[in-house]
Amino acid sequence: MEKYRPKKIVDVVGNEEAKAAFIGWFRNKRHTKKALLLYGPPGVGKTTLVNAAANEFGFKVIEMNASDTRSEKAINAIAGPATSFVALDTFSSDTKGNVLFLDEVDGIAGNEDRGGVNAIIKIVENARVPVIMAANDPDLDKLRPLKKVCALVRFHQVRIPLIIATLQRICQKEGVKADFEALEQIAQNSRGDVRSAINDLQSLAERSKTLTSQDTIMLTYRNRDIGMDETLTAYFSAKNLLDASTVLSRSGVDYDDLLMAVGDNLPLRYQDPAALATAYDFVSRADIYRGKIGVENWNLLRYFYNSLSQAAAVQPGTYKPFKFIAPPIRIITLFWTKGKRTALEKICAKIGQRCHVSRKTAKEDFIPHLKLLLARQKAVAMIAWLELSPEEVDFLQKMNKF
Amino acid sequence: MAVNEDAVMWVEKYRPKTLDEVVDLKDIVESLKAFMRNPKTMPHLLLAGIPGTGKTTVALCIAHELFGQNWKTFTLELNASDERGIDTVRDRVKDFSRYSRAAFGNVPFALIILDECDQMTGPAQTALRRIMETSSRTSRFILICNQSGKIIEPIQSRCAIFRFSKLDRKAMIEQLCCIAKNEKVTLEPSAAERIVDYAEGDLRHAINTLQSASAFREGLVDEKTVSLVIGEASPMQVQIMIRKALYGDFVEARKMMYDLMGSYGFSGSDIIRQMQRELFKMSTLTPEQKADLSDIIGEYDYRLTQGANSDIQLSALLAQFAKVGKASGDTS
Q1: pLDDT band, very low/low/confident/very high, at A243 (cuts 50, 70, 90)
Q2: What residue spans define the domains of chain A?
Q3: Facing residue for B229 by CB, picked from A273, A356, A372
Q4: Could B211 and A401 be called an inter-chain contact, meaning their C-beta atoms sit closer than 8 Å?
Q5: pLDDT at A110
Q6: Partner residue facing B237 (CB), from A260, A364, A402
């Protein structure tokens, strides 16, 4: 990734308008409006542009970003001296001066960064060097005061063809053979985020030097809250344990729903009884962890996911697409059979009353005999004694034996 | 023999009313009769043993002997398997013990019969222990369970424990013959033997089977009829489910499992217990195969108690069966 970070402004992909505005400000306006706020989605080249520009124009970048704490004190500690050394630096031969670059200013938040925004405004007002800031979401309330003292430059998502071209260039240099479809998939999936596209390419290329669209299926799940169908597709088609666990860790599906869905669909994934038994064994273990988690032992959740992942990787490479069963069989069965069950429970309760047994014992020990007697027309007295309604008698007669 | 003429189910009709009528439990009956002579001395009782051996009967007999005809007024009968929530138990016991202080004759307490106590969870049992303590002045408990091991120690230590073992074959046959005679049914000796074999010491099972068999032919129960009834009354679905799984037809077997859960409301552990029982009745399997399969059932019965979803554990169990069936090439 860092290897291909552009060193020159022209190498920064896309966003020509923003680039022009940025250069214009850098050349001329920084003397009138000292601060600049670059904003736009992540990975489109804001930081890169600042570094490339500084490189080209011979400035030195003093950078602070989200990884640093930005309370007022911390900002002053770093930015204060940097801004005041301007005179000294101007005389040194290899730089024309300093640029203070505050990256990810919308990350200033909460108690930890108390007073951070105000400190920045103070610095902008007092600074003798240009101040550049970058943010993803410029509409945040707390940044509003900042916007008043800054010039604004807006960045957009980088267009897909440009990303593809960039990826192709990198592939060429790295000796990676990639299908156009694969790169297109990576680019599209990045949704205009060049950085993530390059990251994806790198992680895929690390596994093999040839990329096909097959390899990129997994990518679709990055950075998105993925639903049940997508989760199951990616989960069941996983090529190895790592892929399966990656899918589960990125899935937004509730783990109980997931457990049930995997349990229901497993027979469609594995035709071979031995593989199916092994896979179910893992799901069974996952369920045991689920049982042990209860409502408090959440630290066990990772073992739950681990076991569930193993179930997907029993026979890698045998995956053939199939239509998923949904909603869960158990819920459907219980829904359709609710009437039957309640009717049976009521009859069993009546038997239980009369014969001093639980409904369960009534169901297992009495119902079969009652059905037998009904079939033999020998139950008239019994029906009266148990106070069964005609509907209940009818129900018992029609009910299948268990 | 005493007969409850108004009852139609034979198990009720011929349920003993006094301790003297109880068959084959001499030791237990003798100890209990000592309490009956001086009810003040009666402690809480815990009756433990396999189904159909007379625990509930003995409890009801005690109620009869203590309170006579009006026993229902002074006795609260609850089934813990039906009233799973301890709150229900607590409320009903509380209400009951409050209103029944008007003691009967020389019996200074009311009686609470709590059946199938081993179905209660640990916390529920702990709550029960409290209830037993707070209401001990006004109430006596008879707790009934299959396995006393599932009852928490503090409760066990508060009770006099009586263990009911499998009923004696001879006593069971005698009882069956007695009922048959009273119902004017000829019970062939070989048929009686067959019923007792099948019932495995469970008298309730035996009497129900006898009653069903008597409905087939007027006035005669022979061995053939009994076999027919046993076949008809066994959980065939469970056997078919096992067979399907062993054939390798996992999907069908699983469908039947869901039907058992859905249509009949069986819990996962009900089904596992029935599988275990039916497995040993299957004539197509060798003893070794049965042992192996039983081992698998045991493993998943355990997992069922640990896990969260019984249908997942049962599915996993059926998948194991399908694997075994495939591996042994046995498509019996």
Answers
A1: confident
A2: 2-154, 158-223, 225-327, 338-398
A3: A372
A4: no
A5: 46
A6: A402
Query: In chain B, what residues touch A373 (CB-CB under 8 Å)?
Result: 211-212, 215
Q: Residue B262 and residue A340: Cβ atoms within 8 Å?
A: yes
Q: Delimit the domains of chain B by residue range.
A: 25-164, 169-233, 236-327
Q: Which residues of A touch B82 (CB under 8 A)?
A: 349, 352, 358-359
pLDDT tens by residue, A31-47 = 667 788 888 888 888 88
Domains B169-233 and B236-327 share a fold: no
User: Quick check: A108 and A116 in contact, CB under 8 A?
Assistant: yes
Rounded CA separation B12/B20 (Å): 17
Min Cα–Cα distance to chain B from A270, Å: 11
Counting Cβ atoms within 10 Å, is residue A123 exposed (0-12), middle (13-18) or buried (19+)?
A: buried
Provide the pLDDT for residue A94: 53
Q: Which of A204-218, A371-385, B58-72 is predicted least confidently?
A: A204-218
Domain B25-164 has what CATH class? alpha beta
Inter-chain contact A287–B309, Cβ cutoff 8 Å? yes
Instruction: Pick A291's closest partner by Cβ from B215, B308, B320.
Output: B308
Q: Beta partners for A132?
A: A36, A101
> Chain B partners of A314 at a C-beta cutoff of 8 Å?
none
| A385–B9 C-beta distance less than 8 A | yes
Answer yes or no: CATH 3.40.50.1860 is held by domain A2-154: no
Across A159-168, A344-353, B94-103, B142-151, least confident range = B94-103
Contact A65, A49 (CB under 8 A): no
Which residue in the set B205, B212, B266 is minimally distant from A372, CB to CB? B212
CATH class of B169-233: mainly alpha
Domain B236-327 class, CATH top level? mainly alpha
Among A266, A340, A352, beta carbon nearest to B82? A352
- pLDDT tens by residue, B264-319: 888 888 899 889 988 988 888 889 999 999 999 999 999 998 888 888 999 999 99
At B135, phi and psi to the nearest 5?
A: -110, 15
Q: Determine the 3-state secondary structure of B281 from DSSP.
A: coil
Per-residue model confidence (pLDDT) at position A286: 94
Which chain A residues are Cβ-neighbours of B210 within 8 angstroms? none
Q: Count how many residues are written for chain B.
A: 332
What is the 3-class SS of A172-217, one letter each residue?
A: HHHCCEECHHHHHHHHHHHCCCHHHHHHHHHHHHHHCCEECHHHHH
- Which pLDDT value is given to residue B180? 93
Give the residue from chain A lying closest to B80, CA to CA: A358
Nearest-CA distance from A282 to chain B in Å? 9
Mean pLDDT of A364-373: 86
Contacts of A177 (CB under 8 A, 6+ apart): A171, A209, A210, A211
Probe site for chain A from B113, B118, B256, B264 (most A CB atoms < 10 A): B264
| CATH number of this structure's domain A158-223, picked from the four choices 1.10.8.60, 2.60.120.200, 3.30.2350.10, 2.40.340.10 | 1.10.8.60
* Cα dist from A59 to A62, A104, A129, B66, B128, whole Å: 10, 20, 10, 103, 80
